[in-house]
Design brief:
heterodimer; A: globular; disordered C terminus; B: alpha/beta; Rossmann fold; 6-stranded mixed sheet
Chain lengths: 349, 274
């Protein structure tokens, strides 16, 4: 038997913490750089000091109508919405991936995004709705799909495996529903529905950001409390139970939080593909075992969303791509890479 | 640490356990001797793991109850139980890339409230658990990189960091080489002898069970056939009743405990077959 000093353990713990801090600050710096780019880039050139002046104009009262419109009504809402929705997708993704112990188990793969999409397409094509009501429909679709998956997966408790399989089944079924709805739609409705399905920040409104911000303020404290339960849950249900975790309550609570984040974000920007899916694994890789990486996944999500949106806006000189096209291209590449790497090491993640 | 622990009492009375409609353990009474190493043995599917899960409140009884210090364990706050009774289930899952120190630290969960931060006391408990399991040098290593034997020691260390008087382990030696099996059982014996803990283990290997057990419990079809000191209770008849197999019992030359020599159809001298 060897004697270990508590200080040794404390040192190991501190070195992990300082790594986590470095990752967090690195991501924040990258976000800041991307945010500055988002405020400065655009067809209408605005010099940096004018942007700053405009940002502070509500306080200083120095107005410059044209520039203020570009900065405060176009670029700022788009930036804020990208950050909030990206963070919400990133958190939602990593919660599902951790809870279900499967990197494929993000809301855009296990059917929750499909539920939102099918509902939105139904609202557009069958009900002829537009704007905010479509967002509400999408939200309801996401929540109903999540409830259905949970109930179908329930058998004396919920196992990760069943949720993933039933989720993938639900995703396939809902995709079929979307395809069917398209067959009976008029061309302009199809266009409107397609635009929604790809997901975009083109129509960013301050109201979207406010709703999402309120959601985050309500949800994050709950997440903060629930996340402690993952200490046990990550080790398997029996071990969690043995450590005194309320297994089903904690899991249900975390799922509710993840569904709410995904549903609100999808309602605001559409099912922007793969942001939820890639954020967790990227954050985990950056952390390298120095923690669970939840806050970092939120930052990665915001960064992926913001940079993708910048690329979507400025990559092609003449046209603006929908944000979802860029995240889709990036995410699909990442998925292939993940599968190749995990195929070699014999395990996923 | 041993000094501030008192011996907690774990017992089952009229216990029925099962999954859905299938009853696996029926009307079982058992008192776990405090401060001793109890080993539960029996053939596959005899209900020994189910009994351990029931004792550990991982499975609710369909009838009867398990009592911890006289209180029904399923009605006690689960977190309070977790400070008195530690469990190592059969196949715990290690999160990816987690370090040894981190995984062992998870054992501190029941001692930390929602907002309680990590304390020097937690560090001390982790250090002590790593020392006891001889894992000190590996504290900063990822669990993925360890051998099977080392990994099993990490899980035991996690259960130790929980600092509970009672420790229940479900087949902690399965999949381990013989040297690591002996290592794990030596470690559990240390806990009992030098720290006064009460340990209950489910084991597959009868001879190791007879050597290490202070108290052996032999089960068949969800019932206890015999219990007691191995040297008193392990007879050829008991082995036949429990495993449905003929055997000779000799004294283990190194420990003087019963050693079961199985009699099969081959490689057995003619005189023994009768």
């Amino acid at each position: 038997m060897t004697i270990v000093q508590a200080t040794t353990i404390a040192a190991v713990r501190r070195s992990r913490q300082s790594h986590a801090t470095r990752v967090t600050f690195g991501l924040l710096a990258a976000l800041l750089a991307a945010a500055i780019a988002a405020m400065l880039l655009g067809d209408f050139a605005v010099p940096p000091e004018t942007v700053l002046q405009s940002l502070f104009s509500p306080l200083t009262g120095i107005a410059n109508k044209g520039v203020d419109f570009i900065v405060l009504q176009v670029r700022l809402p788009r930036l804020v919405l990208a950050l909030l929705s990206g963070a919400a997708f990133g958190l939602s993704g990593i919660i599902f991936q951790t809870l279900l112990r499967n990197p494929l188990a993000s809301p855009d793969i296990i059917g929750i995004a499909h539920g939102a999409s099918a509902a939105a397409v139904f609202c557009i094509i069958v009900l002829g709705w537009g704007g905010l009501s479509v967002s509400l429909g999408a939200f309801a679709g996401a929540v109903l799909t999540a409830i259905a998956i949970y109930l179908l997966a329930w058998r004396n408790g919920v196992t990760a495996y069943r949720v993933v399989l039933i989720g993938i089944g639900a995703a396939a079924m809902l995709s079929a529903v979307i395809s069917y709805l398209f067959t009976r739609a008029r061309l302009n409705e199809v266009q409107q529905a397609m635009a929604w399905l790809v997901g975009s920040l083109n129509a960013a409104q301050p109201a979207d950001s406010i709703v999402l911000a309120i959601t985050m303020v309500v949800i994050l404290p709950a997440l903060f409390v629930l996340v402690r339960g993952l200490d046990g849950l990550e080790l398997g249900d029996d071990t969690a139970h043995a450590l005194g975790t309320h297994v089903e309550h904690t899991r249900l609570g975390l799922m509710l939080v993840a569904v709410a984040l995904a549903a609100f974000a999808t309602a605001a920007v559409g099912p922007v593909g793969f942001v939820a899916f890639v954020s967790g694994p990227i954050a985990r890789r950056l952390m390298g075992g120095a923690g669970r990486g939840f806050p970092q996944a939120a930052l990665v999500g915001a960064l992926v969303m913001l940079v993708s949106d910048l690329v979507a806006q400025h990559a092609l000189p003449s046209t603006q791509l929908p944000t979802g096209v860029v995240t889709g291209a990036f995410g699909a590449t990442f998925l292939l890479w993940l599968l190749v790497v995990s195929g070699r090491s014999g395990r996923v993640n | 640490m041993g000094s501030r622990m008192r011996n907690h009492q774990l017992m089952a009375a009229g216990l029925h356990l099962g999954y859905a409609d299938r009853e696996i353990v029926s009307d079982l009474n058992l008192t776990i001797p405090a401060g001793e190493l109890t080993v539960i043995v029996g053939a596959n599917a005899c209900g020994k793991s189910t009994l351990l899960r029931g004792l550990a409140r991982l499975l609710s009884p369909s009838k009867g109850a398990v009592y911890l210090d006289g209180k029904p364990i399923h009605q006690m706050p689960t977190r309070e139980v977790a400070t008195l009774l530690g469990v190592l289930p059969q196949s715990p899952i290690a999160p990816d890339a987690i370090t040894v120190a981190d995984l062992v630290g998870r054992g501190r969960y029941p001692h930390q409230g929602w907002f309680r931060r990590w304390t020097p006391e937690d560090d001390a408990a982790v250090a002590e658990a790593l020392g006891a399991t001889d894992m000190a040098d590996l504290a900063a290593r990822p669990v993925d990189e360890l051998s099977g034997g080392q990994r099993q020691r990490v899980w035991i260390a996690m259960a130790l960091a929980q600092e509970t008087d009672l420790l229940l382990l479900d087949e902690p030696t399965t999949f381990l080489d013989i040297n690591h099996q002996v290592e794990v059982l030596d470690l559990l014996t240390d806990l009992v002898k030098s720290r006064g803990r009460t340990v209950v283990v489910v084991l597959h290997d009868l001879n190791l069970a007879c050597r290490y057990a202070d108290h052996i419990v032999a089960m068949k079809s969800g019932k206890i056939i015999v219990e007691g000191k191995p040297v008193d209770v392990m007879t050829e008849k008991v082995v036949h009743d429990v495993f449905n197999m003929s055997s000779r019992i000799v004294l283990d030359p190194v420990s003087n405990t019963p050693m079961i020599v199985p009699i099969g159809r081959h490689h057995v001298e003619a005189a023994e077959k009768a």
